[in-house]
């Protein structure tokens, strides 16, 4: 039996990878230095996987930025604006595509399936693929020559590559797949000639909704590839969910199929058990969670593998591996000296996951008696967690009963109009104001203990009062305190709630050299004490205008954290919701009766298959309502989201029953306006009138244009005027200038209605 891995994190234990890239970008190291440093990191990652005992180690998953960009570049799919004229692609062209340069903006970036990783979107207009340079051959040889590793080149498969791409006419799908198959054939032929045994072609799009027509294309592609490179052993690798069209996928003329047995809702296992699995193929079984950070229960995994063994009877045909690339996990638990020891033993990052894979292999065909050390230690670990009392809530299978505000929107609206007495087209912001160096330094100082808590509070209050004055001068109608005390909208709440842990080094790549360090939800989440009341009440004491309280919603907190794997996700969401509910009450009791609960990550949590959306949206909406429904009729609940694709989730958005929603608009106004042309939306709504991602101060006319267009499809008496998102990344002068113009635009619009 064989162990394998699908991909390893790039960032490095101490983020060496990020540091090397950023040093090159800032011209502090040469191109040669960059290549040398990245090679060192790359070889080190291969060595680590070998040392862990992994038999089939991936090569080519390592990248200088993003693996999809690598594929685009290898296939010469380089947009005209980068002035590429054939031959090997220079490192500067590569980085220009990733990050933009003085002459050309970067390629678009978007979320990788349902993860928080972002890939560079291939742009296909007016292009013909040709192989520029076969990087996989180079990397295969490097692993073999330098480390004696028989690597498994990894490449995104042709079908998924096209599905991830943009800017081609859908009517050309077939044509594009044919052209891509030609370049894939060439790359694979060269790999075969170089002596490669196994190639992993990732086809995660096979777990999304695949049409019959598309499935027929997939079959054609793999038949052609098989005819062109009959001796190369291709594994078609899927992950993140169960495959659609199981029967057809397992019949593809390839040497192996990789299936995810962790995030498949049991469906892949059910499929192999009821439909069988072809005896001539390898089943690469993803059994260790590649997306989360918990150690697996060894006995459960052995039981799962025993079931797989019943179907795949020849040990050589069964591979054990993580469910996906380990790109989505941090590197190692070793560098977390400050974590609680029980918690630390329960964690498994990339390096530890590889060991888990190897342990399973060792146990599967040998001694599985309960007193085997690996099994005993693993069981002890779970007993130790139980003994901590962190996890008292039992998994819940009961349906949840709906919660609602006492009065419907139509009933509470007149009461709110009377209470708040705002002009039509009220102006407000999304919450944060510029996080200057000084603000960040201040927070770092109090964390280190180099200033007293009291000093810190005084200085934060100074920022609040400065910005209350600014907002009054600007003429905004609903003010905010500015979020100066917050590092990050999830971390801030996680640090103040029970059940969250924070790491020192557990970084995960988000895009390019950027990483995130998600909190770990390890136990029942509970409210401890008010988290936002002091600052908000202080801000309110300085002004007669309303100050909006500012909270992060339960779904966003959950989606941006590593969650527990012993409770269903919805249940964790409800625990967080109950905690946020208490904060809402605390604010309300302190006289803050306009409260915004941000849910920018609600859409991100959508499952990959549309048939699963309803279940998710039902519990996500319920979580939001749990946190916000108990308020008085006159209390105004706001929410905010940073995207504009609403068409397909509009019913859920309406079901949140927020009195006011503010959404990001300015970069894709067309989409959002057509959504509201086709759907009535009867609650309060503010479509962002300017892009906060750019330092450019927009003109009043631009904002008026956006505003007037929005007012053609949305009722003026329910419309709010606000920027796209929080202003924490902007400079103070830009912010003040832009907001003044925004307020003017609103005033002009009021005169016209
Ligand atoms: N209230 C947050 C802010 O203004 C919202 C951020 C977000 O939507 N991502 O920064
Ligand atoms: Zn936002």
From TrEMBL:
Pathway: Amino-acid biosynthesis; L-methionine biosynthesis via de novo pathway; L-methionine from L-homocysteine (MetE route): step 1/1. Keywords: Amino-acid biosynthesis, Metal-binding, Methionine biosynthesis, Methyltransferase, Repeat, Transferase, Zinc. L-methionine binds at residues 430-432, 483, 598. Residues 425-747 form the Cobalamin-independent methionine synthase MetE C-terminal/archaeal domain. InterPro entries: Cbl-indep_Met_Synth_N, Cobalamin-indep_Met_synthase, Met_Synth_C/arc, UROD/MetE-like_sf. Binds 1 zinc ion per subunit. Zn(2+) binds at residues 640, 642, 664, 725. One of its GO terms (molecular function) is 5-methyltetrahydropteroyltriglutamate-homocysteine S-methyltransferase activity. 5-methyltetrahydropteroyltri-L-glutamate binds at residues 15-18, 111, 560, 604. SUPFAM superfamilies: UROD/MetE-like (SSF51726). It is an enzyme of class 2 (transferase). Its EC number is 2.1.1.14. L-homocysteine binds at residues 430-432, 483, 598. Residues 3-312 form the Cobalamin-independent methionine synthase MetE N-terminal domain. Transmembrane segments: none annotated. It catalyses: 5-methyltetrahydropteroyltri-L-glutamate + L-homocysteine = tetrahydropteroyltri-L-glutamate + L-methionine. NCBIfam families: met_syn_B12ind, PRK05222.1. Catalyzes the transfer of a methyl group from 5-methyltetrahydrofolate to homocysteine resulting in methionine formation. PANTHER family: 5-METHYLTETRAHYDROPTEROYLTRIGLUTAMATE--HOMOCYSTEINE METHYLTRANSFERASE. This is 5-methyltetrahydropteroyltriglutamate--homocysteine methyltransferase. It comes from Geomicrobium sediminis.
């Amino acid at each position: 039996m064989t162990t394998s891995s699908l991909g390893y994190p790039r960032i490095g234990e101490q983020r060496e990878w990020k540091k090397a890239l950023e040093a090159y970008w800032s011209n502090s190291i040469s191109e040669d230095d960059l290549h040398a440093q990245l090679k060192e990191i790359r070889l080190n990652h291969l060595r680590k996987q070998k040392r862990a005992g992994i038999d089939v180690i991936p090569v080519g998953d390592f990248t200088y930025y993003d693996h999809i960009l690598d594929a685009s570049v290898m296939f010469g799919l380089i947009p005209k604006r980068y002035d590429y004229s054939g031959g090997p692609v220079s490192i500067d062209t590569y980085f220009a595509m990733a990050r933009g340069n003085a002459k050309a903006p970067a390629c678009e970036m978007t979320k990788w399936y349902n993860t928080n990783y972002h890939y560079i979107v291939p742009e296909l207009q007016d292009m013909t693929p040709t192989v520029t340079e076969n990087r996989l051959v180079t990397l295969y040889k490097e692993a073999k020559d330098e480390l004696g590793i028989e690597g498994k080149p990894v490449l995104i498969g042709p079908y998924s590559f096209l599905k991830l791409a943009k800017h081609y006419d859908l009517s050309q799908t077939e044509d594009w797949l044919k052209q891509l198959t030609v370049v894939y054939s060439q790359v694979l032929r060269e790999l075969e000639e170089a002596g490669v045994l196994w190639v992993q072609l990732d086809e995660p799009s096979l777990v999304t909704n695949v049409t019959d027509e598309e499935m027929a294309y997939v079959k054609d592609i793999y038949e052609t590839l098989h005819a062109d490179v009959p001796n190369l052993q291709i594994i078609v690798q899927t992950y993140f969910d169960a495959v659609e069209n199981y029967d057809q996928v397992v019949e593809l003329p390839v040497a192996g199929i990789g299936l995810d047995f962790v995030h498949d809702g049991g469906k892949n296992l059910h499929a192999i058990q009821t439909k069988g699995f072809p005896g001539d193929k390898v089943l690469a079984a993803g059994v260790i969670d590649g997306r989360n950070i918990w150690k697996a229960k060894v006995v459960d995994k052995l039981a799962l593998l025993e079931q797989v063994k019943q179907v795949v009877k020849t040990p050589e045909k069964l591979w054990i591996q993580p469910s996906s690339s380990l790109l989505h996990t941090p590197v190692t638990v070793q560098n977390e000296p400050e974590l609680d020891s029980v918690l630390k033993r329960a964690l498994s990052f990339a390096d530890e996951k590889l060991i888990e894979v190897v342990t399973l292999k060792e146990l599967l065909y040998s001694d599985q008696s309960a007193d085997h050390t690996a099994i005993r230690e693993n069981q002890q670990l779970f007993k130790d967690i139980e003994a901590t009392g962190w996890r008292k809530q039992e998994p819940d299978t009961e349906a949840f009963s709906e919660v609602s505000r006492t009065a419907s929107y139509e009933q509470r609206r007149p009461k709110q109009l009377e209470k708040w007495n705002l002009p039509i087209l009220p102006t407000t912001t999304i919450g944060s104001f510029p996080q200057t160096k000084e603000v960040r330094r201040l927070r770092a100082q109090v964390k280190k203990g180099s200033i007293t808590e009291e000093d810190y509070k005084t200085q934060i209050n100074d920022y609040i009062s400065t910005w209350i004055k600014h907002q009054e001068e600007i003429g905004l109608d609903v003010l905010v305190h500015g979020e100066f005390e917050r590092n990050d909208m999830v971390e801030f709440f996680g640090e103040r709630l029970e059940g969250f842990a924070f790491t020192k080094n557990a970084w995960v790549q988000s895009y390019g050299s950027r990483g995130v360090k998600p909190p770990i939800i390890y136990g029942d989440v509970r409210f401890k004490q008010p988290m936002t009341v002091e600052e908000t009440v202080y801000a309110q004491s300085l002004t007669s205008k309303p100050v909006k309280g500012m909270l992060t919603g339960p779904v966003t907190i959950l989606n941006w954290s590593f969650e527990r794997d012993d409770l269903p996700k919805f249940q964790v969401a409800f625990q967080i919701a109950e905690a946020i509910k208490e904060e809402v009450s605390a604010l309300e009791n302190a006289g803050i009766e306009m409260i915004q609960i941000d849910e920018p990550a609600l859409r991100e949590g959508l499952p990959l298959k549309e048939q699963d959306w309803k279940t998710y949206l039902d519990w996500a909406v319920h979580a939001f309502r749990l946190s916000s429904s108990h308020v008085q009729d006159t209390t105004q609940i706001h929410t905010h989201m940073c995207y504009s694709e609403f068409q397909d989730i509009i019913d859920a958005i309406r079901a949140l029953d927020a009195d006011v929603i503010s959404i990001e608009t300015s970069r894709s106004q067309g989409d959002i306006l057509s959504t509201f042309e086709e759907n009535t939306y009867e609650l309060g709504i503010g479509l962002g009138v300017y892009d906060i991602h750019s330092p450019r101060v927009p003109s009043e006319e631009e904002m008026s244009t956006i505003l007037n267009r929005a007012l053609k499809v949305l009722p003026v008496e329910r419309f709010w005027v606000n920027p796209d998102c929080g202003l924490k990344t902007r400079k103070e002068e830009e912010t003040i200038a832009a907001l003044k113009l925004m307020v003017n635009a609103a005033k002009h619009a009021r005169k016209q209605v």
